[in-house]
Structures are given as structure tokens and as C-alpha cells.
Amino acid sequence: MDIFDIIGPVMIGPSSSHTAGAVRIGYLTRMLLAEPAVEARVYLHGSFAHTYKGHGTDRAIAAGIMGMKPDNERIRNSLTLAKEQGLNIKFETIELSNAHPNTAFIEVKGIDGKKLSVKGSSIGGGNIIITEINGKQVEITGKSPTLVVEYSDIPGRIAAITSITARHRINISQIHIGRDYRGGTATMCLQMDGLSVDSTVKEDILKIDNVYDAILIQPV
Asked: Which residues form the ACT domain (predicted)?
């Protein structure tokens, strides 16, 4: 437990779960997209679906997708700002099986055409967990530096990737791997110790054969 867990997040809005957590889900979606979003479809489940207008969950997620953090005073005007910035965002309610009550499923399209789907839950006190990226199971909290690597599911790729982090003297605190099928495309999430990680580790991983993409997310 850290001080954040005790006193809660620095935030704009009435609810740490429905506002601060929702901003962080949107923000991590933006970081994973790695380019400005021009379209977003947000499907809200459970408590998110029932109270999103009153608690500002829609504004919070929109703000995060535009790159705002939970303490940004522009969150309350994010839906207006989205229109001004050319972000076409729509919200719908949905029933998801085996999902936390505060869950959002987000489909986004970037300015350069990249498409991404993300499922994330706000689990209390502004804390979140991203559980799915493009249909693959992951586990990202946003509390520590995280590398998300997409690669071909062939022998030796995991060792090649982790050897790069070792060379950079980075300690891995948690690793999670999801794949669509054996020999297909896999997604690895590496959560690392420290307050930040230099971007050169990502650049070195991208040089590995059969690595398609690598995204470095600093703590939020």
C-alpha cells in the first residue's frame, strides 16, 4: 500500500472511481493508441452505465482519450473540447459477462488510421486495471512503467525481449502474456520497477526480429 491508496488521487470531479479512474482508463487507451484519436466508441457496463452522466464518467473518459490526466481542470469541458479537436466520441451502455461493475470497453481510431480496442475497470480510489487489448488478456495498472510489446509467438521472443530489459538494468516486477492462438500474435505486458524508464529500451526492443510494436507507458 502507498500514500495514493490511503488519501486517494489528486483529481477533478466527484468520484475517484467514476471520474479519476475513468480518466486514467481513457488516458491509458490514448497512450496505447500512440497517436491522437479521431473516433471513439465507449461502451459502459454496470455502475458506469447507470450513473455516467451524473458522475461525469463520459467527460472523464473523453478527457483521458484526449491525453488529460485526472487533475486537469479542462475535464469538465472535455466533450465540448472533443468536438473542437475533431474527436467523434459516442457512448453506449452494455452488459458484459464476468466484468467489474465499473468497466468500460473502448474502441478507438487514430489520426493515422490505427485501430485499438481496450477493456478497463476502475477498481476504487482512482485505481484501475486494463484487462484486454485487441481481444488479448493483459494486466496493466498504470502505477509503474509498463512496456506493451506485440510480437510473433515463436520460440525465443520472450527471452530476446527480457534480455533487453536486463541489459538496461531494469527489474521486471510483473509480466503478463496473451496471444490469439499458438504461433499467432502475442502481447506481452512488462511492469517494471522505478518511477520512469528511458525510451531507449523500447527502441532496442523494436529492433528485435518479429517484434511488431512496442509502447512504453510511464506511470499515471
From this structure: 146-220
